[in-house]
Amino acid sequence: MTDWNHEVERIRQLRRDRTRIGPGEHPAVVVVDFQRAFTEHEFVGPSTPVALKHSQQLLEAARAAGVPVIYLVMILDSLDDRMLAQRVRSSLTERCERGNPWTEISTAVPAQPGDHIVEKTVASGFFRTRLHDLLQELGVDEVVMIGTSTSGCVRATVTDAAYLNYRISVVEECCDDFRTLSGEVSLWDMQDRFADVVSLEWMLERFARA
InterPro entries of this UniProt entry (predicted)? Predict the structure, then answer.
């Protein structure tokens, strides 16, 4: 029988030891789906307010350093715009029709003047959105990823960012997933294949030097 506690410790060590890609010269912070639908739902656990608090700290540091901040938000003109799996199965995206108060960005991490908001209809922030064009306009070569859920929309956006050859830094303390094991595995998967998983402390120190 698999000892899952041992497996989690093993992948955490693998993540720490994995070769780093390294940061870029012109980062932007991409905030994934920190909307009420995904931060106030009935399955939210104690990790969510902690991730939001850490994210607010990171966002304040990014803005002070002149780093662009981009919010990704799930907005659907029709629930039929969702991918097939979400139309067949019950999903929190049922709360994401345009005009529904659940689509609002969490008051714990509010957008500020000068921030950018990009609407999306699926997990990835790049699929049929203006995100890549916006990043190019801003001269960005690295995306600093925070948000929810680690195993869903964060991972999907990271994967597509990697395919577009962005450098990617996933800030561990600023990502949340109520599926605890899925979140842990996804952090290892992203570190192994697509990105650097970094600490909040490291990113704050970096922004302070900018």
Answer: Isochorismatase-like_dom (IPR000868), Isochorismatase-like_hydrls (IPR050272), Isochorismatase-like_sf (IPR036380)
The residues near 126 (Cβ < 8 Å, ≥ 6 apart) are 132, 157, 160, 161, 164
Give the fold, CATH level 3, of 25-209.
Answer: Rossmann fold (3.40.50)
107-152: per-residue pLDDT in tens? 999 999 999 999 999 999 999 999 999 999 999 999 999 999 999 9
- Full-model pTM: 0.96
Q: Is the dihedral of CA 50, 53, 59, 62 positive or negative?
A: negative
